[in-house]
Every structure is written in structure tokens, then in C-alpha cells.
Specification:
It is a single chain. The protein has about 300 residues and is an alpha+beta fold. It folds into two domains: about 190 residues, Jelly Rolls (Sandwich); about 110 residues, Homeodomain-like (Arc Repressor Mutant, subunit A, Orthogonal Bundle), CATH 1.10.10. It has twelve helices and eleven strands. A hairpin with a 6-residue loop joins strand 4 and strand 5. The longest helix has 23 residues. It starts with 5 loop residues before the first helix and ends with a helix. The relative contact order is 0.14.
């Protein structure tokens, strides 16, 4: 039997994390950066000074030295020296594709601030259930009585790594960025109250987590509700009711949607024939698979792929 939280590991594996794109900025006020990475989690770490995170129709959010702020869906926002900054907003994303790790500067002559900013690279379709269940902004504070050890160590390591050019630097930064994002996700999942009726709460529910883990580990298996209920150690009716109440859809509907996301990934990144993709996601009939895919994505698999 898989441990309850192993379902989160399997879901993260399904997302196919492929590292993090970084940039290091060094500013004096006034300054302003704009960033939007639709569907891809982006983040800022304040390593010196303070900054304000601004989103449309939302109150300003102060982030201070040592804080780690994540926008799971990559929502458009600015980070700036103060809520009423006079500096023009420059596009931070354009600096994230550069291989140079020297700081990007905006120098207005006022109070100083340094940021490490970036965005993750992962499969947006496979990540959709997790990303949609997360809040628009997640903030991990380094202040207070018990700041997370992983954050303090992570920031210290990042600062040391970007201080000088070294072999394998980008590969190491990619992995550290992945770890920081996963730690933030794990902390948030652990903070979700049990029985709160959310998709994330299912990851803390031993019964539902076991069923989810088996579906993600063996998506092509011909699962039935009674078989999934046995994995959850519940009666069929109790399992079906708890699953639908917590995840908002019946178990086999969830499984079908997961299979279609897997199929979309195979269509996008492989040259496999559609018959093989159908088999990989649990369909013995290519016609049945095509019908299911069209219901989910509005197009036949061959059309969607092209």
C-alpha cells in the first residue's frame, strides 16, 4: 500500500518538471518589473530589501527579505519598489532566457532591493488539476518564530550559486528551483484542513490518496469503482460518495480526464500512432478512445495533434 502523500509525488512526476528559468535582479528605487507566465508557476525571492507585488483588482502585497512568493498559474503581475511606483514596468521574462547570471539592474538611486525570480517548466495540461486547486498567490515568510528551514537553506544555496560562474551551474539551479517549488507545494498541501472538501484535501485523506495514487501509477488498468474502493479500504458506496464530495466528480470521470491529459501529452511529444496512444491510456478500441478525446478536447486526436 502506498503512503498517503505518495499520491502527491506521483502527481508531481506526471507534471514532468523540467527545471526552472532564473534571473537575478538588483535595483534601487524607483523600479518596476512586469511578469506573466500563463499556466506556468512563477516566483520571486527577496534576498535584500523589500518589494510590493501588484495584481489587477487585488490589494498590494508586501514581500520582504527572505520571503518566497509563488504564483502557481503565472498570473500577470508586477513587482515594484512601492505601490505607487513612478518607474515604467519592464518585462522581466525577456531576461529569463539569457544564460548570463549577472544581475539585471534598474537604478533609480533610492532604496535598494535584490530579487531572484523565475518560472518553472512543466506540462501545463498534466499540471492543470493541481494548479487550479491552488490559491493565486502563495507566500512563505522567512520571518516569525519558526521560518521553514528549507527556505533558509535554499536561499543561502541560491545566493552562493549565483555569486560566481561555475561548471554545471544552470543544471544545479534548475534542480534547486524545482525543490523550492515542491517544498512550497508540500507545505501548502499539509496546511489544507482535512475534510475541507477540496481536491488538495484528497491528498491528505488516506483512503482517497491511495486510490488516486493507484490511478496515477496505473492509468491504463481497467479500473472499476469496486476495485478502487478496495484500494481505499472502503465500501463501494462510501468510497464513491467521499470521492465525489471531495474531488467534485465521480472516480471514473476523474480517471477518464486524467487519461485524456496523458493522451494529449503523448500526442504532443511523441510520434506514436493513435492506436498505441489509445492502448497506453487504457483503451482497446481506437474509436472509443477518439470519441472520449473529442468529448474532452473538442477535436479528434489526429486533428488536435496537427
Amino acid at each position: 500500500m502506498l503512503r498517503p502523500m505518495d499520491s502527491l509525488s506521483l502527481i508531481l512526476d506526471d507534471m514532468h518538471f523540467n527545471g526552472v528559468v532564473f534571473t537575478h535582479t538588483d535595483m534601487t528605487a524607483p523600479w518596476c518589473w512586469h511578469l506573466a507566465t500563463p499556466g506556468l508557476a512563477c516566483f520571486h525571492i527577496v534576498t535584500q530589501g523589500q518589494a510590493w507585488l501588484m495584481r489587477e483588482h487585488e490589494p498590494p502585497l508586501l514581500i520582504e527579505s527572505g520571503d518566497f512568493v509563488v504564483l502557481p498559474a503565472g498570473t500577470a503581475h508586477t513587482v515594484q519598489d512601492k505601490p505607487q511606483s513612478t518607474a515604467p514596468a519592464l518585462d522581466l521574462l525577456t531576461y529569463m532566457d539569457q544564460s548570463e547570471l549577472t544581475p539585471v539592474r534598474q537604478q533609480g538611486g533610492g532604496a535598494s532591493c535584490q530579487l531572484i525570480s523565475g518560472h518553472a517548466r512543466f506540462d501545463i495540461d498534466m499540471a492543470a488539476p493541481l494548479i487550479s486547486a491552488l490559491p493565486p498567490v502563495m507566500v512563505v515568510r522567512s520571518g516569525g518564530s519558526a521560518p521553514p528551514l528549507w527556505l533558509a537553506l535554499g536561499i543561502q544555496f541560491l545566493e552562493q550559486e549565483i555569486a560566481a560562474v561555475r561548471p554545471a551551474q544552470q543544471a544545479i539551479l534548475n534542480r534547486v528551483g524545482d525543490v523550492l517549488l515542491m517544498e512550497c507545494l508540500r507545505d501548502h498541501v499539509e496546511s489544507v484542513p482535512e475534510g475541507s472538501g477540496t481536491w488538495l484535501a484528497a491528498l491528505k485523506d488516506k483512503a482517497l490518496s491511495n486510490a488516486l495514487a493507484h490511478m496515477h501509477q496505473h492509468p491504463a488498468r481497467n479500473w472499476t469503482v469496486p476495485e478502487l474502493a478496495r484500494q481505499a479500504c472502503l465500501s463501494r458506496s462510501a468510497f464513491a460518495e467521499r470521492f465525489a464530495q471531495t474531488l467534485g466528480e465521480p472516480p471514473l470521470t476523474y480517471l477518464t480526464r486524467h487519461r485524456m491529459r496523458l493522451a494529449a501529452r503523448h500526442l504532443r511529444v511523441t510520434f506514436w500512432p493513435i492506436s498505441k496512444i489509445a492502448h497506453e491510456v487504457g483503451y482497446t478500441s481506437e474509436a472509443a478512445f477518439s470519441q472520449a478525446f473529442k468529448r474532452e478536447y473538442g477535436e479528434a486526436p489526429s486533428v488536435w495533434r496537427s
